[in-house]
Structure to design on (229 residues):
């Protein structure tokens, strides 16, 4: 991966876009983790860490990296980009996960278009219309801003992990130190997850997190909820 220095504008953009303060509403979603805690599947740091690593390496997290990378590659081919976005939306296994991807994608598109405009960005986002899947929008915006693809993927992994760790800290509950231990453990496998994602396409990516999918489905009818997914 090319070195990124603290004076590089791309690095500043990544820190801004993937920050918890970027208004995409990431804090409102748990990818079914809330139901997993409620049903007793996730009860401590070990099980929370296992759940998050599995989502990243075998589920939606890793799949989203594939879609992000392809969006980066297709940034100058808007019809193909829209087809990819439609595929990404269809890939979501539950209603809540689909709504999450679209809600975050639309929010990211609106904020980035207004705060970080660049040639071709508005046209591409308009071409996606109602299919603004979150990883596709992020990958497209990164390409238009000249941000290195692998750097964008790594930042996305970090943001994805940080959001789920934050949810676990509140839901299990866990202490802040245990939350950071989970983040450190994910860091150890991030390179492997990125390498796998880089070798896949939308036609070869898979998801095998059946318990997480079931948890997401059950979450739709959970009696009390803190999160939207």
């Amino acid at each position: 991966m090319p070195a990124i220095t603290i004076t590089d504008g791309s690095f500043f953009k990544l820190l801004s876009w993937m920050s918890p303060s970027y208004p995409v509403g990431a804090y409102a979603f748990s990818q079914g983790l809330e139901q997993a805690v409620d049903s007793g599947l996730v009860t401590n740091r070990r099980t929370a860490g296992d759940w998050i690593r599995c989502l990243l390496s075998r589920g939606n997290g890793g799949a989203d990296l594939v879609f992000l990378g392809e969006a980066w590659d297709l940034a100058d081919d808007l019809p193909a980009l829209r087809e990819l976005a439609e595929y990404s939306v269809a890939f979501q296994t539950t209603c809540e996960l689909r709504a999450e991807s679209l809600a975050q994608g639309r929010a990211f598109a609106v904020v980035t278009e207004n705060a970080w405009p660049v040639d071709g960005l508005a046209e591409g986002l308009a071409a996606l219309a109602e299919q603004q899947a979150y990883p596709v929008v992020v990958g497209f915006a990164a390409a238009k801003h000249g941000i290195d693809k692998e750097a964008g993927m790594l930042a996305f992994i970090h943001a994805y992990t940080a959001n789920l760790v934050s949810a676990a800290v509140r839901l299990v509950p866990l202490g802040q130190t245990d939350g950071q231990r989970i983040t450190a453990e994910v860091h150890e496998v991030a390179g492997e997850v990125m390498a796998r994602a880089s070798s896949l396409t939308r036609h070869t990516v898979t998801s095998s997190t059946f318990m997480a999918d079931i948890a997401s489905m059950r979450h739709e009818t959970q009696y009390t909820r803190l999160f939207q997914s």
